[in-house]
Design brief:
By secondary structure, the chain is an all-alpha fold. The N and C termini lie far apart (52 Å). 19% of the residues are buried. It is 87% helix and 0% strand. It has three helices and no strands.
C-alpha cells in the first residue's frame, strides 16, 4: 500500500534508536542477575525475549510485505509487553533479595 515503506522505515528507525538501545542497556544488568539463583531463570527468559525482539526488528527492516510487517509489529508489541512485565518482576525480586 501507499506509504508502506515510509511507515516501516519510521518504525524500524524508532526501534533501533529506542528499543534496541534500551535492550542493550538491560543486557548489562541481566548478566549480573543471572548470577543470583533467585533471578537466574527470569533473567535468562528476558535475554531470550531480547534476542527475539532484536531479530524481529532486523526482519522488519527487510520485509517488503505489509502483512509480514504487521505480524512482526505484533510480535514486537507482545514481546515488549512481556519484557516490561518481567523487568518489573525482576527488579522487585532483586529489591527483596
Amino acid at each position: 500500500p501507499e506509504g508502506f515503506s515510509e511507515a516501516r522505515d519510521g518504525l524500524v528507525e524508532f526501534c533501533r534508536a529506542e528499543l534496541l538501545s534500551h535492550l542493550e542497556r538491560d543486557e548489562r544488568w541481566l548478566l549480573q542477575a543471572q548470577r543470583c539463583p533467585e533471578e537466574r531463570l527470569l533473567a535468562e527468559a528476558m535475554r531470550a525475549e531480547t534476542r527475539t525482539m532484536t531479530a524481529a526488528v532486523y526482519e522488519l527492516a527487510t520485509t517488503t510485505g505489509a502483512c509480514e510487517a504487521m505480524a512482526l509489529t505484533r510480535v514486537l508489541h507482545t514481546f515488549l509487553a512481556a519484557h516490561d512485565h518481567h523487568e518489573k518482576l525482576l527488579l522487585t525480586t532483586a529489591a527483596t533479595a
